[in-house]
Design a protein that fits this description.
Largest sheet: none
Distance between the termini: 49 Å
Strand content: under 5%
Radius of gyration: 18 Å
Structural class: mainly alpha
Number of strands: 0
Length: about 55
């Protein structure tokens, strides 16, 4: 546990590497965690388009 706290305070992240067969999908996998944020922003844009009814 102490080692995990030391890594988090040091600013290093533990990232898993994809197998070599899936290395071409690495850029897509890097963007995937941001996709739910886009849906949240889409809800606000949609409501702004309909004047927040």
């Amino acid at each position: 546990m102490l080692n995990l706290l030391n890594l988090s305070t040091n600013g290093n992240m533990i990232l898993a590497k994809l197998p070599e067969a899936y290395a071409i999908f690495d850029p897509i996998v890097d963007v995937m965690p941001v996709i739910p944020v886009f849906f949240l922003l889409l809800a606000f844009v949609w409501q702004a388009a309909v004047s927040f009814r």
